[in-house]
């Protein structure tokens, strides 16, 4: 059974940090790109961070550049999102999703939600002002 399980969300004050984890199982993580998305209340789901496994170049939404860091540990079948200097605007449900392949450009990775084969259930991040 394919599973992506997010964890690490919670309530934090503005300026604080959280580290999200996405633990995967049931498929070969080495053959997939894992991307972080988020969805705030009343807004569309948006791509936050990703990395093509072929070149290991990370991609970030403009709103999180310099504050969020994407990493992955294939040996642990886990992808991480370190979130620093959090802002109230970062409040959202954060999801990880898997896309088969080794390389896509940034626009494809962060905007083509429909191309992703597997999704987690999400973890809530709430940033208070």
Helix and strand topology:
Elements: E1 3-7, E2 10-13, E3 18-25, E4 32-39, E5 46-51, E6 58-60, E7 68-73, E8 78-83, E9 92-100, H1 106-111, E10 118-119, E11 123-128
Parallel strand pairs: 2-11
Antiparallel strand pairs: 1-3, 3-8, 4-5, 4-9, 5-6, 7-8, 9-10, 9-11
Rg value? 14 Å
Q: Class by helix and strand content?
A: mainly beta
Please tell me the overall pLDDT: 97
Our estimate of the beta-strand percent is: over 45%
Low-confidence stretches: none
**Count the strands?**
11
* Percentage of residues in helical conformation: under 10%
Order of helices and strands: EEEEEEEEEHEE
Tally of separate helices: 1
Description:
- This protein has one helix at 106-111; strands at residues 3-7, 10-13, 18-25, 32-39, 46-51, 58-60, 68-73, 78-83, 92-100, 118-119, 123-128.
- The chain is mostly beta strands and 129 residues long.
- It has one helix and eleven strands; from the N terminus they run βββββββββαββ.
- The longest helix is centred in the last third of the chain and has 6 residues, at 106-111.
- The model has no long low-confidence stretch (mean pLDDT 97).
- The strands form two sheets. Strands 2, 4, 5, 6, 9, 10 and 11 form a seven-stranded mixed β-sheet that branches. Strands 1-3-8-7 form a four-stranded antiparallel β-sheet, with no helix packed on it.
- The radius of gyration is 14 Å and the shape is globular.
- The termini are far apart.
């Amino acid at each position: 059974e394919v599973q992506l399980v997010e964890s690490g969300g919670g309530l934090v004050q503005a300026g604080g940090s959280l580290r999200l984890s996405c633990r995967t199982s049931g498929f070969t993580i080495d053959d997939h790109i894992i991307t972080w998305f988020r969805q705030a209340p009343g807004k569309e789901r948006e791509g936050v961070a990703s990395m093509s496994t072929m070149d290991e170049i990370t991609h970030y939404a403009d709103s999180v550049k310099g504050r969020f860091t994407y990493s992955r540990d294939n040996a642990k079948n886990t992808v991480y999102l370190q979130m620093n200097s959090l802002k109230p605007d970062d409040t959202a449900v954060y999801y990880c999703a898997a896309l088969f392949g080794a390389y896509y450009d940034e626009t494809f990775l962060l905007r083509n939600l429909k191309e992703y084969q597997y999704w987690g259930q999400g973890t809530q991040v709430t940033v208070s002002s």
